[in-house]
Amino acid sequence: MHDTDLDTDSTLADPLSGMDLYELFDALPDALLLVNDRGRVLLANSAAQHIFGYGENELCKLEVEMLIPSRFREHHRSYLNAFFIHPQKRAMGDGRGLVLLRQDGQELMVDIGLSPITLQGSSCVLVSLHPANRRHQAEQALRTSEERLLLAKEAAGLGIFDYDCHRGVIHCDKRLCELWGSEAGEVMTHEAFLAAIHSNDRLPYQVALEKAMNPEGDGRLHMEFRVINAIDNIERWIVILGRVHFESGVAKRLVGIVRDIAERKMLEKNLLAQRAEAETFFGQQVAVRTASAIAHQLNSPLTAISIYSEVALRAVQSGSIDSDKVKHALESCVTQAQFAGRSLHELLAFLQKGETKTEALNINEVVMAALAYARDEGSGEFTLSLDLQPDLPTVRANRMQIQKVILNLMKNAAEAIQVANVNASAATIAIRTENLVEKSVVMVTVQDNGPGFDQETVKHIFEPFFTTKPTGIGIGLPICRALVEANGGYLWVDTDYHQGARFHFTLPFAQS
Predict the structure, then answer these.
(1) Which of 340, 318, 342, 315 is nearest to 327 (CA)?
(2) Which bin fits 444, alpha (ψ -120 to 50), beta or left (φ > 0)?
(3) Phi then psi for 230, rounded to 5 degrees?
(4) Closest CA to 171 of 160, 158, 156, 182
(5) For every residue of 407-435, which 3-state class applies, written as one string?
(6) How, if at all, do strands 428-436 and 383-388 pair?
């Protein structure tokens, strides 16, 4: 480990002759070299020997320049002399790492610390070495990752936020501030963040946020909503994706991203309009084919009934009644009528085949899901009012069928408001849920402030093929009533409500 023939460096022999000092030097975990003012290695501990790939005592007597790649040796002597002119403890390389040479010729990047030492009037320097390869590789990997993330962020137009749940403040990047129209810099209150969200989307956002901050959930926040920019007043569709971090079961931080999806929403709106047009055409075709099938099944027996009835009528009118003929004619009428009835029931049974699968549902969650679909379909401009009674009993129903009923009622309400040219700021659709304990049902109410119905319309509103819409086919409400009844409930229109239209439907408790 040490030089046994120090020659002109014999001044170090006495102070380093104690074995305890050598053992201590050798036992230190950091790689250490002791170098004199002429650049000669006097001592090297085991850690240094291992780093440079030398055996015991092989580093001693070497010139320290031999541990430096040849391309860097030219200036080394001047650096060494400069150090001993003003010896002081310092690091070399400014944290960038320096390149040294192993015995096998491989280069090694290290961080170097220099500490001046004076032994019996002779100036030396204690060199500490720390391999920097892993650190630099990690730093380079981090820089590369950050650069890639920045490029992806800019390409996707992402905004990044960090919500301090305890203090109620949100740290935002520049992109999020641009989307929100915030001039407050990179920090805004949660109230300001919430105020920019469209009034109809604010409650669904708060519900989603509360769910994400529930420690019993997965902590994920993912939804789409509209934001009104405070500067240009432009409405933008935003998607938010975040993850809540908990400490001791309490939400601490919500970190996530937001992205402007206005172009995607415009494309979806166009596709939805095309789909609605296709569905209307398809519905008309279904109605035509169904009516044709019913007509085909009934035409033959009805024709026979007509003929037999005419035979019986003529017999009665002639005054000479042949009772056998009249009896045969009437019996044939009965037979054909029964045949027509059976055919009709068989056809309806075929069209309605399939068992309705039901489950225990939280009706408020079904309403919120239907609202999400309604927002995606762009059902028009109106103010949404929700009055959802908390802690409702679960109901027994088919989830998709009940969502379809709510969606259809909302769609009808939105179309009625548009037809009536109700001002967008005054247009309102209200949805309420309540527990009718005495009847063991939950009631859902959907009402609007459109033109409503006159008494004659109310009489026929649930009849198939009756419609007040120019392009309607009159099967929406009959189907809705049939779906509700298939789930054990009832759907009706409130005839006493005159400020628009109000529909109610009920569903039975899952356990009564």
Answers:
(1) 315
(2) beta
(3) -70, -20
(4) 160
(5) HHHHHHHHHHHHHCCCCCCCCEEEEEEEE
(6) parallel
CB 86 within 8 A of CB 166: no
| Alpha carbons 389 and 95: distance in angstroms, whole number | 63
Using alpha carbons only, how large is the chain's radius of gyration in Å?
Answer: 43
pLDDT, one tens digit per residue, over 85-98 is 888 888 875 555 68
The C-alpha atoms of residue 448 and residue 427 are separated, in whole angstroms, by 8
Helix (H) or strand (E) holding 204: helix 199-212
On whether the CB atoms of residues 348 and 312 are closer than 8 A, the answer is: no
pLDDT at 140: 63
State the alpha helices, DSSP H only, in 17-130.
19-27, 46-52, 76-85
Q: Tell me which residue of 196, 154, 149 sits closest to 175, measured CA to CA.
A: 154
Where is 148: in which H helix or E strand? helix 133-156
* Contact residues for 363 (Cβ-Cβ < 8 A; gap 6+): 392, 394, 395, 402, 433, 442, 444, 507
Neighbours of 499 (CB within 10 A): 11
For residue 460, the model assigns a pLDDT of 78
User: What does pTM read for this prediction?
Assistant: 0.47
Token digits for 21? 């000092």
Closest CA to 256 of 155, 127, 158: 158
* C-alpha to C-alpha distance for 385 and 435, rounded to whole angstroms: 18
Pair 130, 109: CB distance under 8 Å: no
Could you tell me the CA-to-CA distances from 493 to 97, 253, 409 in Å, in that order? 80, 47, 11
Q: What gap in Å lies between CA 91 and CA 82, rounded to an integer? A: 14
The DSSP H or E segment spanning 313 is: helix 262-318
44 close to 64: Cβ distance less than 8 angstroms: no
Residue type, position 44, single letter: A
* Helices 399-419 and 363-377, packing angle to 10 deg: 50
296: Cβ contacts below 8 Å, ≥ 6 apart: none
CB-neighbour burial class of residue 239 (10 A; exposed 0-12, middle 13-18, buried 19+): middle
Instruction: Enumerate the H helices of 319-443 as residue ranges.
Output: 323-351, 363-377, 399-419
Pick out the chain residues at pLDDT < 70: 1-21, 93-97, 133-156, 184-185, 276, 278-291, 293-294, 296-297, 343-356, 376-381, 420-425, 464-475, 512
Residue with tokens 């007040």: 468
